Amino acid sequence: MKHYYYLALLLLLIVCSKDADAKPKGPNDPQLETVVNTNICETLVNPNATAEAQALYQKMCRVYSKKAISGVVADIDWNTREADNVHKWTGKWPVINVFDFINIHASTDVNPKGWLNYSDMTPVTQWHQMGGVVGCMWHWQVKANNGTDMTCSPGTKPTETAFDASKVYQAGTDENKLAVKQLTQVCGYLRKMQTKGIPVIWRPFHEAAGNTYEFEGGGAWFWWGAKGPEVYKKLWRWMYDFMVTQQGLNNLIWVWTSQTEDNAWYPGDDVVDIVGRDNYSALMYPLMKEYNALSKQYPNKMITLAECGNGDEVHMSLWSKIWTQGSRWLWFMPWYDHAYNEGNSDTHQFADADWWKDAFNSGTVMDRNEWQ
Q1: 79-84: which pairs have CB atoms within 8 A and are 24 or more residues apart?
Q2: Closest to 371 in 3D by CA, of 356, 360, 42
Q3: Lowest-confidence segment of 55-64, 245-254, 342-351 by average pLDDT
Q4: β-strands 150-151, 142-143: how paired?
Q5: Which residues sit opposite 70 in a β-bridge?
Q6: What is the pLDDT of residues 131-161, one digit of tens each?
Q7: Residue 19 to residue 39: CA distance in whole angstroms
Q8: What does the alpha-carbon distance between residue 304 and residue 288 come to, in Å, rounded to a whole number?
Q9: pTM for this entry
C-alpha cells in the first residue's frame, strides 16, 4: 500500500507543478520573456538616404536591446533646457534632443510679430557638433474655429479646429494650400540641417489614434487622426512623398508612434523606419507588455519609447527597474516640465534628478560621451 501511496503522491506533485507553471506570470515574475526583434531591417526606407542618416540608423541597430539611448525634448521652443537640467543634475548629457516645430507660425522669418526664429540653426548645430543626436517632431497647429487661436485639437468648439485631414492631400483645397505652405516652411529648416550634414530622427503625426481603443467613446486627440485610419495613412504617405520625393529631404529617419492596438493606422513598412510608443503611465509591467506586443506586431522594426513620464508614478518606474523588468526600448524621452524650467515649480514632474541619476547609474543607458 505504501508503494501506491508514494506513487500517487508523486503524481500529485507533478500535476501541481505543471499547474503552477501554467499560471499567468505576474509583473515581478522572473520568467517573463522579453521579445527582442533580431531581424531588423538594416537600411532606411528611403533608398536615397544620406550617408549620415544611414550611419546613425545603423549605429542605433548595433546598440538596440543592449543599452537604451537617453533623450529629452525641447521645452516648447528651439532650445536645450531639458538637456541642461539633466547635465546639472548628473554631470552627463543625454544623447538625443528633440526639437518641436510647434510654433513655426510665430517664427520671425515668416511672421514680423513672431518671438523666435527657426531659421537660426544655432541650437541644432551646436547639439550636433557636441556629438548629440537631433530629433524633430511637430505639434502641427492650425487656426482654431474662432479664427484667432492656434490648436491641434479637432472638434467644433471655438478653441478646437474643423481642419479636415482628408482634404490635405487633395490639390487645390484650402487645407491643401495651407498644409503645403507650412510643410514647405518646415522642409526649409530640415534642408538646412541636411546641408550641414545633420541626420534627423523625424516623428510626425504622432499619437494619431488617441484613446480610440482604450475605452468606449475614445477618439483622436489631434486633427491628423480625426478622420480615421484610412485618411491618416494617406496623409502620412502624402507627407512622405512631399518631403522625400518632391523636396529631396534624405536626412530623415521616419518614426511612427503606435497606440499599441492601432495596427489599422500603420502607414506601412516602406515608409516607416522605427515604431515608437508614447506612454505616460510608465509602470513597469504595462511597459513591458507594450514593448513585447509592438515587437511581435512589427518584427522588422526597432521599438522605442518616444515619450514617457508620469507625475506621482515616476518613482514607481525608475529606469533601472524598467530595464530589469525586460523592456528594451531603443531610446526613452521624458517630456519637459515648463513650470519647472520657468522657475514656477520646485518639482520636475516627468523625470526629476533622482530619476536621471538612477538611469545613468544603472549601466543600461548611454549618455552623449558613451554614444560618441
Answers
A1: 79/123, 80/123, 80/127, 81/336, 81/341, 82/334, 82/336, 82/341, 83/127, 83/132
A2: 360
A3: 342-351
A4: antiparallel
A5: 332
A6: 999 999 999 999 999 999 999 999 999 999 9
A7: 34
A8: 12
A9: 0.90
Secondary structure of 46-94 in HEC code, one letter for each residue: CCCCCHHHHHHHHHHHHHCCCCEEEEEECCCCCCCHHHHHHHHHHCCCC
Other beta carbons within 10 Å of 368: 22
Tell me, what amino acid is at 147? G
> Is the pLDDT reported for residue 4 higher than 60?
no
Calpha distance 109→370 (Å, rounded): 37
Average pLDDT, the chain: 89
CB distance 268 to 4 below 8 Å: no
Instruction: Write the pLDDT tens digit of every residue in 81-119.
Output: 999 999 999 999 999 999 999 999 999 999 999 999 999
| Gap between the Cα atoms of 57 and 171, Å rounded | 34
Whole-angstrom distance, CA of residue 234 vs CA of residue 229: 9
Q: What backbone torsions phi and psi does residue 334 show, to the nearest 5 degrees?
A: -65, 150
Amino acid sitting at position 122: T
Average pLDDT value for residue range 171-181 = 97
| Location of C-alpha cell 525608475 | 318
**Residue 12 burial by Cβ neighbours in a 10 Å radius (0-12, 13-18, 19+):** exposed
**Do 323 and 364 touch, CB atoms closer than 8 A?**
yes
Q: Which of the four pLDDT bands, split at 50, 70 and 90, describes residue 9?
A: very low
**pLDDT score of 20:** 37
